[in-house]
């Protein structure tokens, strides 16, 4: 069979869409409405499209931010994936270009023949040529992408709480105010709020074009209209917002569940005020929230911290460092120190790190620490500690104390988190 790996042309977009799992109708791994909200992202929504809609989608597929590659076998597309051009916030606040791998699929009849390996290699080369020194993805299965150097860097929780178990430790007097708004107001609030959030949140991703367009849309699963809640500070400026649904169900067990689809707060006041209302909503029994950060402060507001039950914990953004020097120089550090890092296959680097930035230079000195690019990807945003990876046998300490020193450099203020994906 003759295999050719190359970008998809406009004339080939319809054929390319054929290989995407959504179009194929394959079950998506987590078809949970509260995990998905609005916007025409690279993934097709989970509803059957009409031929006319697919035609339209194919027409508009190629943009300057969506870069699909395909494997052509004997001239026909047998597999594909794409890079979306987004940004990720790194420690210190710089928003750097990230090649986001998405929409990956190989037709069942062509799997396990190395097509994804070749597509991935072409896509990562493309990122390097464009100067993107980080690539990222979210993985449907955790066993696929490690071989390409990707490794989990941010994590997320889903939790639920029964309303009858909620009691706050202290009274809270809100210096600001909560307001229910319609989706037109929400559509103005969310883009601005998210920009403010991602300026300070390590790991957060820039939204794809169209992300905030569908805030009033009804989900295909009948989970009801989105409600929009915002919080204003004492000056009237919006400093937090939530999107929630109250799906109707004939099943009494499922009825009365308030689904929090999105939640952002720039201040502690907004955070406390928004959760205060959502967790004590009349006629509801339970609140469920997905895609939440692993260091959610909410449990510390409750008299019974166990009331908040984690129902899912999983990796979110996987990172692949494509240029060690540029990546290590793009972030700031929690301390001042120098370490020589050996990154298998990517060279040996002397990192001179400070709270204001770093110099990273090729070195032939004895390394203080050795690891692969996978471990570097997990450590990079500060969401995983070197000591954890060292205990797991994945980071080798060549100089006594070097693991703790690296941890001291990479220590994050908050757990890295991305509420927005791609
Ligand atoms: C996942 C998928 C894209 C892989 O494509 P593929 O062309 O079969 O992959 P390759 O033949 O290039 O395999 C490369 C390597 O990955 C391994 N691999 C492939 N699919 C895997 C899977 N689902 N789980 C674990 N390992 C897998 C192969 O064994 C091979 O390993 P090796 O390099 O050690 O020999 C394809 O199986 C698929 O379309 N699956 C359904 C859709 C899906 O899961 N998409 C991912 C969305 S994140």
Explain what you see.
The chain is an alpha+beta fold and 422 residues long. The chain has three domains: 3-153, Gcn5-related N-acetyltransferase (GNAT) (Aminopeptidase, 3-Layer(aba) Sandwich), CATH 3.40.630; 157-315, Aminopeptidase, CATH 3.40.630; 323-410, Nonspecific Lipid-transfer Protein, Chain A, CATH 3.30.1050.10. The chain has ten helices and 19 strands. It has helices spanning 13-18, 21-24, 51-59, 115-129, 183-200, 268-278, 324-330, 373-379, 386-391, 402-410; strands at residues 3-7, 66-73, 76-89, 95-106, 134-137, 151-152, 155-162, 177-181, 226-232, 238-245, 257-265, 286-292, 309-315, 318-321, 337-343, 347-354, 357-362, 369-371, 396-397. The chain has a seven-stranded mixed β-sheet with strand order 1-2-3-4-5-14-6, with helices on both faces. The protein has a seven-stranded mixed β-sheet with strand order 8-9-10-11-12-7-13, sandwiched between helices. The protein has a five-stranded mixed β-sheet with strand order 17-16-15-18-19. A hairpin with a 5-residue loop joins strand 9 and strand 10 (238-245). The chain starts with a strand and ends in a 12-residue tail after the last helix. The model is unreliable at 25-46 (pLDDT under 50). The chain binds coenzyme A. The site of coenzyme A has 18 residues, from strand 4 and helix 4. Coenzyme A binds at residues 21, 79, 104-106, 111-117, 139-141, 143-144, 147. GO terms for molecular function: aminoglycoside N-acetyltransferase activity. Belongs to the acetyltransferase Eis family. Pfam families: Acetyltransf_17, Acetyltransf_9, SCP2_2.
């Amino acid at each position: 069979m003759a295999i050719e790996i190359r970008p998809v042309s406009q004339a080939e977009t319809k054929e390319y869409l054929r290989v995407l799992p959504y179009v194929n109708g394959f079950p998506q791994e987590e078809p949970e409405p509260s995990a998905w909200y609005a916007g025409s992202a690279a993934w097709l929504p989970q509803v059957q499209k009409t031929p006319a809609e697919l035609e339209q989608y194919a027409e508009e597929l190629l943009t300057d931010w969506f870069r699909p590659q395909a494997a052509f076998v004997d001239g026909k597309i047998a597999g594909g994936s794409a890079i979306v051009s987004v940004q990720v916030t790194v420690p210190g606040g710089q928003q750097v270009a990230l090649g986001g791998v998405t929409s990956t699929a190989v037709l069942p009849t062509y799997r396990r023949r190395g097509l994804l390996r070749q597509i991935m290699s072409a896509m990562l080369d493309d990122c390097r040529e464009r100067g993107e020194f980080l690539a990222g993805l979210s993985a449907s299965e955790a066993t696929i992408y490690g071989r390409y150097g990707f490794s989990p860097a941010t994590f997320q929780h889903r939790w639920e709480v029964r309303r009858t178990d909620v009691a706050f430790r202290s009274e809270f007097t809100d210096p600001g105010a909560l307001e229910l708004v319609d989706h037109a107001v929400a559509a103005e609030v969310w883009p601005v709020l998210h920009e403010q959030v991602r300026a300070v949140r390590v790991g957060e991703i820039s939204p794809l074009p169209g992300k905030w367009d569908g805030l009033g849309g009804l989900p295909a699963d009948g989970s009801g209209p989105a409600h929009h809640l915002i919080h204003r500070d004492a000056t009237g400026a919006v400093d937090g917002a939530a999107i929630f649904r109250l799906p109707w169900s004939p099943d009494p067990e499922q009825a009365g569940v308030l689904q929090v689809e999105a939640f952002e707060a720039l201040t502690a006041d907004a955070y406390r005020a928004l959760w205060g209302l959502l967790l004590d909503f009349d006629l509801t029994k339970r609140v469920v929230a997905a895609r939440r950060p692993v260091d959610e402060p909410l449990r510390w507001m409750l008299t019974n911290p166990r009331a908040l039950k984690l129902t899912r914990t999983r990796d979110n953004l996987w990172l692949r460092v494509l240029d060690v020097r540029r990546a290590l120089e793009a972030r700031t550090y929690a301390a001042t120190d120098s370490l020589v890092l050996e990154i298998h296959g990517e060279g040996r680097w002397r990192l001179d790190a400070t709270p204001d930035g770093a110099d990273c230079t090729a070195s032939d000195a004895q390394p203080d620490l050795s690891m692969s690019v996978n471990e570097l990807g997990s450590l990079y945003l500060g969401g995983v500690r070197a000591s954890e990876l060292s205990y797991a046998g994945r980071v080798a300490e060549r100089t006594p104390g070097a693991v703790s020193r690296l941890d001291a450099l990479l220590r994050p203020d908050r757990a890295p988190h991305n509420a927005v994906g791609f």
